[in-house]
Amino acid sequence: MDGITDAPMRAFQGAQNTFTHSVTEFIRVSNHPLPTRVFIRDVPELATRAKTTTDLPVQIQILGGDPDRMAISALNAVAAGATAIDINFGCPAPTVNRNDGGASILRCPQRVYEITKAVREALPASIPVSVKARLGWDTIEPIYENAEQIQRAGASWLTIHARTKTQGYNPPVYWKPIGEIRRDASIPIVANGDIWTVEDFYLCQEQTRCSHYMIGRSALANPNLPHQIAQTLGLQTLTPIPPVDWPKLLQEFHDHSTNFHGPNHPKSLNRLKQWLAIAARFGDFPHFANLKKISDHQDFMTTLTTLCHFQTSSNPLKLVEISHH
């Protein structure tokens, strides 16, 4: 997720022991191939075998529209230490699309093929090359041909977000086409999009029959969701999961961010606010307004702790409204 899954967040999520791997924020390839120093700067995990400090594998995601530049950039990423490359054909941001990147490529399946093939052929066979795509630009039909082209180009797996570009993140999601593609695919298909609850996961699983799933915003809105899904799949022991302890959880993330950026760095506090903004919009944290204007790190954490009073029952967290001056 652009602006969210930076190195501290990847390390934090690795510590939760629920994800098999993490994908970086997209790194844009524009007028020139990206040199190794860009990847080393943006993905510090390359210094530790492309794993976080908490041992979570990290895959580099690149975005661009020129096959040769994408291929050279991917090769430079591998030279810098990358162990897997992901190609972004899914970003719906207008700025990205106007500059020949992300979901804009989906309008031409031949370009999808050429970019994927160029990256695949530039790298050793031992380096996986995957693709993240949406269903299409403004209709869902293009995913069928694009999925064929991605497979023909030699991709290792394909992650499909169950919306079109023009939908952005608006409902509805269309999981059924993902299942139809998975049924005939020669590579693993990963389902993505609007898995907010265990019930959503069951519905997605029923319609797609996928063995692999990607979640993003929902893991921030409900940090317990990865554990709940892991238990559903039998990957974790079935035990009661306590309500989210927001102060404890965010303090742990803040510690990772402080270790990376240094004490009281603005990015650390901004990431906390971005997280809670998602939790407020999509989850059960309704008092983000009390926190978003606080600029002092300690004051932020103190106010957060005051706001969050947890019940010992199975009810969600109890929040007490206070004013902040």
What keyword list fits this structure?
325 residues; alpha/beta; TIM Barrel; 2 domains; eight-stranded parallel sheet; two-stranded antiparallel sheet; 13 helices; 10 strands; globular; disordered C terminus
Question: How would you describe the overall organization of this protein?
Answer:
- The chain is of the alpha/beta class.
- The chain folds into two domains: 7-232, Aldolase class I (TIM Barrel, Alpha-Beta Barrel), CATH 3.20.20; 246-319.
- The protein is built from 13 helices and ten strands.
- The chain has helices at 7-15, 36-42, 67-80, 94-98, 109-122, 142-152, 176-184, 198-208, 217-221, 225-232, 246-261, 266-282, 297-307, and strands spanning 22-23, 27-28, 58-63, 85-89, 129-136, 157-164, 189-192, 212-214, 308-309, 318-319.
- The strands form two sheets. Strands 1, 2, 3, 4, 5, 6, 7 and 8 form an eight-stranded parallel sheet that branches. A two-stranded antiparallel ribbon has the order 9-10.
- Strand 7 (189-192), helix 8 and strand 8 (212-214) form a beta-alpha-beta unit.
- Helix 1 crosses helix 11 and helix 3 (67-80) packs parallel to helix 5 (109-122).
Strand-helix topology:
Blueprint: H1 7-15, E1 22-23, E2 27-28, H2 36-42, E3 58-63, H3 67-80, E4 85-89, H4 94-98, H5 109-122, E5 129-136, H6 142-152, E6 157-164, H7 176-184, E7 189-192, H8 198-208, E8 212-214, H9 217-221, H10 225-232, H11 246-261, H12 266-282, H13 297-307, E9 308-309, E10 318-319
Parallel strand pairs: 1-3, 2-3, 3-4, 4-5, 5-6, 6-7, 7-8
Antiparallel strand pairs: 9-10
